[in-house]
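Risk register update: the risk that structure generation would not scale has been downgraded. Supporting records follow, first protein first.
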Amino acid sequence: RRVHGGNSRIMKIDKHPFGVVDGVEVSKYTLVNDHGLEISVISYGATLISVKFPTKSENSALEELTVCYADLDQIVAKSSYYGSTCGRVANRIAKGTFSLDGQTYSLAINNGPNSLHGGIKNFSKVVWDAEHFEANGFIGVKFHLTSPNGDEGYPGTLNVDVVMQIDNNNTLEFEYQATTDAPTPVNLTNHAYWNLSGNLKSSIRTQVVQVNADHYTPTDDTQIPTGEIASVQGTPFDLRAPTLFGNVIDHVLGGAEHGFDHNFVINNPNAGTLTLAARLHDPVSNRHMDVYTTEPGVQVYTYNYGSKNPADHPYVQHNAVCFEAQKFPNSINTPHFPSVVLRPGQVYQQKTVHKFWLE
């Protein structure tokens, strides 16, 4: 299907069957704008499985900017969250337990002693309803999921909508909305693994990162924040100026491996408004990606637990970086962190924007 975008440009949406999970058909949608940005998303996990973009050179071929698996069987079998929507609560909850309004809830332990990204059969492991659309100069896909009361141990029935859309300005937008019939924690994000070199020609060590954060949240040895909001000044976490990943990645431990797996506190004087969170630049291709979000934090993860065997390329250590815009990890157990509690009558909303451009 071809649709008209802004300035009379032509954008295109294609829908194809992608396989079956638990007897439910999974659909794949490919969205293409008029300037070479092409994304593919699937209804399993509301997952972004591909982002392609050209280089500066004239008539250059599109090249892949993310790490993902090519077929549904691999996506279902693996648990690396490549491009997936994470929830009901993204990131870690300490010891898989929390109290809300005087009641204690227990969750699956699936990451050391903690609960990660919503549990075992989390939002990335189910088939969402999906429909494609065109509106206001965008083409996109709207995903819907009803998470029942007690799903993975969480209280309340949660209705979730996730929109992934592109325009002709090379913008990829994620918009999240959720409502509940009982108090529950909610923290949603997308877990795309980015590498701007094109077709994963080089690791992110050769790419330049910038994070708009004066502070970060240090963690214990299980990667749960200690509660401190610490200055980045004088530490390897000071990414406020453009920084070559290769100069800092070996000076940080993200878990048991070198690299980042830390939440940065985004500088935003107007909480809840869209602001710059991070930038990534590949000097060889001259590709840039700017990330904006309404969220207070961004988890920077440098694929520390990728394989160390070069034969497993591209699924190898430090071959990509995630910018997971969200509330802080373990916020439900840390009262002075931004609240993740959603109550009946309230609407959870989150927006994250990726802007791609060539120097």
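Supporting record for the second protein:
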Amino acid sequence: MCSPSETITPVKVSDCETNYDSSASWTTTLKYVLSAAFLSVSVLEFSLWFPFVLPGLTSAAAKTYIPAFFVYDDEHTKFDNTPWTYNTDYLLTIVMSILAIQCILARSDNDQKNQRSLRLRLYSASLLICYAISTLAGAWAHQHFLSVESLNTSRFRMFWFVCVGNVSFASCYMGLIGREVQRHFGVSGAMHMGPWWFWPAYGCYMSLTCGLGYISFKRPACDIFIAGCTQFPSTFYCLGALGIRKWPQQNSKKVAVGKETSIELVSPMYRAIYYIGFISNAPLLPVYPILVQYTDMTLGGVNTFLHTWLLLAWGMQGISLVRLCKAVSNGERRVGAATEKQQYSGGPALIYSIIMAPLALMATDYARMSFS
């Protein structure tokens, strides 16, 4: 204990400060560990619950999302092997790989600016590589596992874990992208950044549960939609990081060429592409059971339609991320004005409310069923 005395030494004061800082650091770390654990567990539970409570889709979901834990049968298992399915997967792999390379190469002639954009470029490329690996493994599985017996092998389980696990882990890179977007484009204080390990911990948990079979259904394609549903916290974090600010008007004041800040180098068109790209996968969750239960489309036709949708959504993510990387690599570092910091003081509360609202809805439904 440090207390005033007749002989006060600087060492004891320093010890007090060190102990206080260490205690505060451990408290903050524990807070984020518990937050990551709560968010991971509750979002996985929400993702497994949500398809069955969508209005008008309860029956279709019950017939579509049948748990498998990697054990498949002739009665319920549907796995398409037509060229339309795996060739469109291969196309996705090629496009995502090209966009990932473009993110890495979104550099300028200024080494200092390139260093500043490095993490955003790496995280953006990693997200797109996750997509590419996922679709490559999915394409190979659709092309080579042709019977239910082959689906019940450890080899298929490995390939399908790579496919779904990368979609599950993509939340990690989405969250890290959100941190970098907040750092370079966001308003100070509008979004909490948290420690760097928060989103990797979240992504690892989702991938682990995928490997253990908690995200496994008789129709293997369903695994992808549940894995995609777990991305909603990191998706809204990315949207909030770029969206919660007042953007400069294109016709307000002219800035000398080469002197623009990163913010001024991102036009409304690219911001719209970013927003649409990150949110446009959401309709796929209700669309899939509708297509397989209420239409006469073949599985190959359904998969081709869904892959085309993914090509547009992921493609827009990639195009907008390439632009953001170029903006940081070529723009001047902005100096946040005092007025800018007050633009959206309620930003964190807004994002937390958006993320917590569906979890609260799930908890309410569980409570209702428990007491009924």
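Residues 11 and 67 are 62 Å apart (CA to CA). On this basis the risk owner (M.S.) recommends closing the item.
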